[in-house]
């Protein structure tokens, strides 16, 4: 009986210690967050003119006159971004951006990142549309530009890899794998797995 009581008391104390420890950790994390946020909101504006802005190559992307509603919409969306500032800020939180570039730049940078998200999503739609309609050369142009923009959309990589496979250019799949390895995103590993599977299937066909 005394052993049982002792064990129960030990478990109770262990749980209490764990709860106290967890609260202390959460408190420290909260304090660290707000200290960092305070510092971010005090950071002076820096020059962001030299950042790696993305320019849409209007003269090389395969824009065409069409009556097809989906294609018209996609092309229109991309054209609307041509003169807008575009930056890939994937992996950076608002606090990160304020610390790095100053609180006065945050609205502009968020807008740049929104433009980037719109660009890669529409490029992905465009590439998929062209691929599905067997317009492979045009799909290559669109998808390669999308990858150049450091898109982390898995489908962009797999479609492009499938095209390289069909065109008998496995070395370009290796290039895709190298590009994917540089991504700082949660989807990185899934992209790499898919690309390696496509590369392997090339030798098994």
List keywords for this structure.
mainly alpha, flat, 0% strand, Serine Threonine Protein Phosphatase 5, Tetratricopeptide repeat, 205 residues, 8 helices
Q: Tell me the number of helical segments per DSSP (H or I, 4 or more residues long).
A: 8
Q: Are there runs of 5+ residues with pLDDT below 50, and where?
A: none
**Average pLDDT:** 89
What's the total count of β strands?
Answer: 0
What topology does this entry show?
Elements: H1 2-41, H2 69-79, H3 94-101, H4 106-132, H5 136-148, H6 154-166, H7 170-181, H8 188-204
Helix pairs in contact: 1-3, 2-4, 4-5, 4-6, 5-6, 6-7, 6-8, 7-8
Walk me through this protein's architecture.
This protein has about 200 residues and is mainly α. It has two domains: about 40 residues; about 160 residues, Serine Threonine Protein Phosphatase 5, Tetratricopeptide repeat, CATH 1.25.40. Helices cover about 70% and strands about 0% of the residues.
Please outline what is shown here:
The protein has 2 domains: 1-42; 47-204, Alpha Horseshoe (Serine Threonine Protein Phosphatase 5, Tetratricopeptide repeat).
């Amino acid at each position: 009986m005394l052993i049982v009581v002792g064990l129960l008391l030990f478990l109770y104390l262990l749980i209490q210690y764990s709860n106290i420890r967890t609260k202390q950790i959460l408190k420290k994390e909260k304090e660290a967050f707000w200290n960092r946020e305070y510092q971010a909101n005090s950071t002076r504006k820096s020059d962001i003119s030299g950042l790696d802005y993305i320019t849409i190559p209007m003269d090389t992307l395969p824009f065409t006159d069409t009556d097809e509603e989906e294609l018209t919409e996609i092309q229109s969306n991309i054209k609307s971004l041509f003169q807008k500032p575009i930056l890939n800020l994937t992996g950076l939180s608002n606090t990160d951006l304020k610390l790095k570039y100053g609180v006065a730049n945050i609205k502009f940078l968020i807008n740049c990142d929104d433009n980037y998200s719109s660009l890669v999503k529409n490029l992905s739609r465009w590439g998929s549309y062209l691929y599905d309609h067997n317009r492979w050369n045009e799909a290559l142009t669109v998808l390669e530009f999308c990858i150049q923009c450091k898109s982390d959309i898995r489908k962009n990589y797999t479609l492009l890899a499938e095209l390289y496979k069909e065109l008998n250019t496995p070395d370009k799949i290796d290039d895709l794998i190298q590009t994917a390895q540089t991504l700082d995103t949660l989807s990185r590993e899934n992209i790499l797995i898919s690309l390696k599977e496509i590369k392997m299937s090339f030798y098994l066909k």
